[in-house]
Amino acid sequence: MKVLTIEGATIRMDQETGFICITDMAKLKGDPSLNIANWMRNRATVEFIEAWELKHNPSFNPFEFEGIKSGAGSNTFYVSTKDLEQAGCTGVFVKRGRYGGTYCSPQWAIHFANWLSAAFYVETVDAYLQAQELLYGKDAQLKRFSRELAAETYPLAAGQAQQRLPRGAKLEMKLLSGKIVGDIINLAMWGMTSQEWKIKFPQRDARKNMRDYATAEELKVVSALQVLSQSLQEDQYTSEELLERLTDKVPELMTRFCRTEKQQAKLTAARADRGW
């Protein structure tokens, strides 16, 4: 079982969801049932819950939540976990039984800690960050962020290529044009297309691609190339010109994102380990 250690006490985390047991947290500051109930009835908490659900729950219906929101702040207002679940909230659930409790998403739990006390909030945030570092490591967290950044900037390059297609172009053509631009960036960055990489380095998991094995610094360069690609396409660069310009840019970007000796050593080791 995953756990957090806050003020020397063990706080359980749900294995499947990563949700944190706020019952364990509440016990450190008095009556857990009273603490959780008072936190949930607080108007600021209700507004936070709505904001979290709107961002993280695609099925959330704010109109169904309106009944809860409209009562928040009154002296007689009370809301339970069951009420929240029935209103479509997904950031909290209750485990029954001897070892049960109320479990919330990490953001909810941190909000609860802040409500309990400022000092407890600081301890909770530090404990959560330490647990994430132990679980993923600093390097893995940085790579996850860089991978997400590369995924988010890819549509800039692919989308610009698709806009240059004739009106009414079929979906297959749009997908192909995006793939071509993606491979131009792969060629500039690693000297081979995705298909060439798959042939040279066969994968058991067909979903894996070159970027899954790239370093955080390489992924930052890819993101920058994707943004630059959009601009160059807007200036009507041909595919050959685009490849040449991006290839010339790679050394400059690698120097920018791989500045320290430690980063350079890790990059060299990663390339040697994977063989490309």
TrEMBL record:
Start and end residues of each KilA-N domain: 1-131
Pfam families in the cross-refs: KilA-N
Name of this protein: KilA-N domain-containing protein
